[in-house]
Task: inverse folding
């Protein structure tokens, strides 16, 4: 026997009478494409803001004080002090070579975005170097180290947090972070140490190297701080009637496994399904967005965990 379900509201219990839905009763389905586009625009705006902070830190505090730190911009600064060639020119040229490597490792999609970010940062560096010719904090080399390192670290942290890249040694750091259990900040230290020390060839000054190391340390620490700790992990408990759709989307988009456990609401007495997810802390934004797009009324509990060991996380050690 086949049951037929009425899809219109019933007026009374005796007669099965149907009435058309008015404008207030019609519920519009959320336009997922529009939401995704809006979120993408927001992400790109934050990445550009990060690139602006990075350019300001370099041209406003480091370069006018004759300071050199790591990265391709550090190589560009050394070339600038040695030959007078603008930093933007050296930065763009070296990145063309490194982007070929990133295509093989991260794919064309990531590299295509990186090309755009490299072009934007090249324009920002060139423009800022033309406008800012005097240090923003005159006569305070150490303070310029701190402020420049903080601004550069904040800029890089914002770019990394929203899946962007400034190219250069950032590509090398991301490769190390992808295949090894090393934070992006520590990977940058390893990549940039030789660049800072090589500034001695131009300046013949140990003091400049010390300043460069200070900038590098402050910047790397700030990157990890903005990223909420690349090694830290979080645990989600998601309560929703649309648990299956949420779990499928997290697996397909966030590439994180999900576990469904049974629960009982003690007050209501109703059985509920709980989605349990383990993820990196910098993936929290993506998971929150997935849940919000599917079920804005979902109940979510997020907690930090000391460590997660196994596939996709830290290696289990003796």
Result:
């Amino acid at each position: 026997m086949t049951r037929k379900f009425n899809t219109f509201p019933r007026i009374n219990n005796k007669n099965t009478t149907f009435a058309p839905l008015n404008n207030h009763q019609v519920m519009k389905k959320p336009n997922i494409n529009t939401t995704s586009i809006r979120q993408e625009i927001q992400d790109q705006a934050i990445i550009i803001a990060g690139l602006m902070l990075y350019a300001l830190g370099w041209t406003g505090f480091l370069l006018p004080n004759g300071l050199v730190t790591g990265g391709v911009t550090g190589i560009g600064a050394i070339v600038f002090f040695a030959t007078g060639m603008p930093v933007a020119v050296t930065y763009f040229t070296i990145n063309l070579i490194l982007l070929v490597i990133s295509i093989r490792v991260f794919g064309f999609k990531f590299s295509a975005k990186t090309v755009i970010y490299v072009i934007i940062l090249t324009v920002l560096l060139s423009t800022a170097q033309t406008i800012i010719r005097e240090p923003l904090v005159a006569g305070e080399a150490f303070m310029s180290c701190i402020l420049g390192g903080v601004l550069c670290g904040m800029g890089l942290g914002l770019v990394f947090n929203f899946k962007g890249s400034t190219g250069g040694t950032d590509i090398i750091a991301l490769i190390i972070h992808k295949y090894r259990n090393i934070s992006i900040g520590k990977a940058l230290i390893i990549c940039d140490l030789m660049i800072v020390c090589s500034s001695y060839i131009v300046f013949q000054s140990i003091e400049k190297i010390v300043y460069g190391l200070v900038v590098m340390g402050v910047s790397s620490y700030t990157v990890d701080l903005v990223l909420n700790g690349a090694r830290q992990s979080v645990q989600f408990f998601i309560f929703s009637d649309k648990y299956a759709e949420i779990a499928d989307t997290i697996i397909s988009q966030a590439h994180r496994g999900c576990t469904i456990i049974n629960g009982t609401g003690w007050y209501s007495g109703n059985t509920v399904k709980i989605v349990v997810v383990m993820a990196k802390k910098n993936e929290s934004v993506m998971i929150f967005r997935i849940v919000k797009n599917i079920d804005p009324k979902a109940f979510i509990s997020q907690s930090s965990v000391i460590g997660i060991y196994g596939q996709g996380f830290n290696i289990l050690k003796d």
Q: What stands out?
A: The domain at 233-305 is CATH 3.30.70.120 (Alpha-Beta Plaits). The chain has a mean pLDDT of 81. The longest strand covers residues 271-280. The two ends are 61 Å apart (CA to CA).
